[in-house]
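Possible regression after last week's pipeline update?

I re-ran a chain I had predicted before the update to compare outputs. Posting the input and the new output here so someone can diff against the archived version. Not blocking, just want to make sure nothing changed silently.
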Amino acid sequence: MQSIPANIDPARSATARRRQPLARWCALALLAALPAQAADAERAWLDTSRSFEDRAAALVAQMTLEEKAAQMQNDSPAIERLGVPAYDWWNEALHGVARAGSATVFPQAIGMAASFDVPLMDQVANAISDEARAKHHEFLRRGEHGRYQGLTFWSPNINIFRDPRWGRGQETYGEDPYLTARMGVSFVRGLQGDDPKYRKLDATAKHFAVHSGPEADRHTFDAHPSRRDLWETYLPAFETLVKEADVYAVMGAYNRVYGESASASTFLTQDILRGQWGFEGYVLSDCWAVVDIWKNHKIVATPEEAAALAVKHGTQLDCGDTYADSIPVAVRKGLLPEAEVDAAATRLFTARMRLGMFDPPEQVRWAQIPYSVNQSPGHDALARKMAQASIVLLKNDGVLPLSRDTRRIAVIGPTADDTMALLGNYYGTPAAPVTVLAGIRQALPDAEVVYARGADLVEGRDDPSATPLVEPQYLRPSADSAERGLRGEYFRNKDLSGTPVLVRVDAQIGFRWDRGSPTDNLMARGEAGPDNAVPNDGFSIRWTGQLLPPVSGSYRIEAAANDGFRLYLDGRLVLDHWEDAERLRADSVTLDLEGGRAYEVRLEYYEDERDASVRLAWDLPGARPPFETALEAARWADVVVFVGGLTGDVEGEEMKVDYPGFAGGDRTDTRLPATQRKLLEALHATGKPVVLVLTTGSALAVDWARQNLPAVLVAWYPGQRGGNAVADVLFGDANPAGRLPVTFYKADETLPAFDDYAMAGRTYRYFEGEPLFPFGHGLSYTRFGYSGLKLGRSRVGAKEALQVSVKVRNVGKRAGDEVVQVYLHPLQPARTRALKELRGFQRVHLQPGEERTLSFTLVPEKDLRIYDEAAGAYAVDPGRYEVQVGASSADIRARSAFTVIPTKDD
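New output (post-update):
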C-alpha cells in the first residue's frame, strides 16, 4: 500500500475512499501527483503484468544513490516523490508475532521442538502468519509503518544448540541438525504460505553460521570449526531450509567464521549460500553487525569500508545505521561500484513486491485475512495443544497423574505464578496468560490450592515480581463506588497532560506489555479505537482511588516499573523514580496503616520505549518469611507441586546483569539455582510427595531430583496457555509425549570449553558418557511395544532408497502418543563419524491395544553422507550400518543391519 502524498487532502477524498480500497486509491493518487516526465517510468513498477524483478529494477532506476542506500537499512524511509512508503524490515515471530502488541504466544521454540510433531508445527506456523498478516494490514489502516509492523520476519533461529550453557539456545530447535531442519522447514512453509504469486510473509533463517555463544564474546570471536563439523553440524539445517522450504531471507551472525565476518562473508554467502545452494533471496546482517566489522573485528578501519565489504560479499540489508551514510561515501571513494548497490536494492524491492506491498490488496490473497484471527479462540486452543505436546515427562514413579480427588495442593516455587516463565524471549503480549498456579486452580476449582513462592529465582536478584500484588478487594476507585480496583487514566504522552484517551477501572495494577504496547491489546478488547488508542511508546497512566488495609499494622508497599513511577498516599509523595530505566525496577516504603480506614492512593507511571511494566504490591503485617511459609504449606498439603527452573529474565540474549551461575545471559552452572535447590530439598524432607515442574529454555542438571523425587517434568516456556497444559498433564487430561530435543547432562559432567566449536564430546551424536536424560527421552502414562522391524533390502547403493517399516502397539490401558525415532549407527565405518544420527521420526496416536505400521525412507546419499575434507565434498562410505528404532536415542527397541555397497561413482 502506498503512502498518501503530502499535497493530497484525504478529507476531500473521503467519498472516493469509501468507494474503493484505500491502497488502490493511494496508487491512483500517486500517479496523478507525479511529475509528467516521470509518470511513464513510475507506471512501470506499478504495472502488475510485469515481473516483480522488472518492476523493482524500474523503481530502483528512479532513485538517487542516497535513496538506494537508505532503502538498504532495516528502517527504510519513505521516498515521497516516488510514492514509496516507509518500511521497517525488523519483525520477530519466533513463537508468535512478537513485540507488536497483542498476539497468541505459543511455546518457546525449544518447547515446540520437543513436540517432535511436524503436522502440529504446520498449524502453529500458519496461525502465526495469519496473525502477522492481519496485524500488518491493521497497522496500515492506522497509517503506521514502524518496527514490528511489517511482513518480513526474522525467524526461525536454526542454530545448533551445541552447548547447554548458551542462553539463546531456547530460541532453537535443539541440538540435532535433522530435527532442526524438519521443524524449520515446517515453520518456514507456514510463514511464507503456498500462493504461487504472492508470499504470505518472508521467513528468515538465522544466524548464518556457526553461532551459539558465548553471548559476551559474540561481537569479537572467530569460529574455526573443522570442515567436517561445519558441513555435518552447522550448515545442514540452513541448506535444507534453502533447498526444501525456499526460505527467502538469511541473516548473518555477529561473529567471524574463518576470519571473515559472518555478515560479510565471501565463503558463506557467495560460495556456499548462492554458489552451491542456489539461494535466490536476500541476506541481512544481524543488528549492528556491520559496525562490528570495523569497530570490533577490525577487519577494516572505517564504516564505509565495512559497508562496501558487506555489500560486495552479498549482504543486501543492514540491520543498523551504517549503510545509509556509508554506502554513498564508499561509492564516491571507489570502494563499491554503484551497480552493486543497484543490484542489492533491486533484490530488496523484489522481495517487497513479491509480498504484494505495491499491488491492490484485492489481488493479494493474504490481505483478506481478517483482524479477528488475532488472539482468536482457535489460536488460543492451538497454543494449549502445542503446550501439551511439548511437555516432557522425565520421571514418574507412579505419582502422576494426580487424582482429581486430591483436596489439598501446595503449589510452591518462584515460577509457579510468574508470567515470564510462560514467555521465554521474543514474545508478544498474550491476552490472558495462564500461569501454572492459575492452571491448577482452574483444573480443580473445588480443591484447596495454596500458593507460596518460597524462594527467589536466583540468588542476588531483586525480583519485583516476588511481592504479591494488592488484590482488588483492597482497592476502590472512589469512596462512593461499588467497583473494586483503581481508576486508570491513559494518556498519549509521557507527562500525564491533556485529556486521557482511555479511562477505566483496573482491578489490579500488574501489567507487562511487550514493547510498551497496550494499544493493540486494548483495541483487541474493543476498549480503544484507532483514533484514541494509547501509543506503543511514550505514554503515561495515572491510577487513583482508595487503599483499604484489612488490619492494622506495618505494611511494606512496593511500586515497580521499567520507566518512571511516583506513588502518593494521602497526598504525600512516598516513592519517586520519575526517570527512565532499562529493566523493571522496584522500590518500597514501610508504613503503619490502620485497618478499616481508607487511604487516598495515587500511582503515576510513564513508559518511554520498548517493554512496559508496572506493579503495585504489598506485604501484609505479620507476613512470615517466604521459605517458612512454603514449608508450612507443604506440611498441610496432600501433594506439593514445585514449579521452578529459569525464566527469560536470567537466560537470554547478551544480558547486562549477572547472577551466580549466569553470565551475560549464558549459564556458568547447569544446575537448578541454589535458592531453589535448598527449598526443594527442604520440601522433600517434609515427607510429602513432591512433583517437580521445570520451566526452562535449556537442559538442567537435576540429578538430585531424579534420584529423590517421584516425578519430574519439563514444561519449557510453554506459552500463554502453559498453565492449563501443565495442569492437563498433572491430572491426566493430557497424556505427555514430548521428547527432549537436547541432552540433559549430569551436574558433574565435564563439558568441553564453551567457546570451543569442535563437536567432539557434545550432543548425543558425539557424547560417549552417560547422560542424565538422553536426547529423545520422554515418558508416557501408557506403554508401547515395537515389533516387526523390516528393511526393504540388505544391500543398497548410495543413491538407492531403503524402505524401513516397524509395528508399534499401545500395550497400556489408556490412549497416548508415541514418538517413534529412527537412528543410523555405523557398524564398520571407513572413518570416524557420529555415534548415531536421527534420520526419521513420527508422532503417532494409538488407542489401547491399537497397532500401526510406520514406514520410513532412507537414502544413504542424503542420510549417511559425511564431509570428505580432502575432496572438499560430501561422500558416502561403503560398509555396514544399523537402523535403530526406538523411543529415544538410548531406548532402542528394534535394530537391523544393512550394507552400503560401492557404486561406479565411488
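Follow-up from reviewer: compared with the archived run. The two ends are 55 Å apart (CA to CA). Marking as no regression found.
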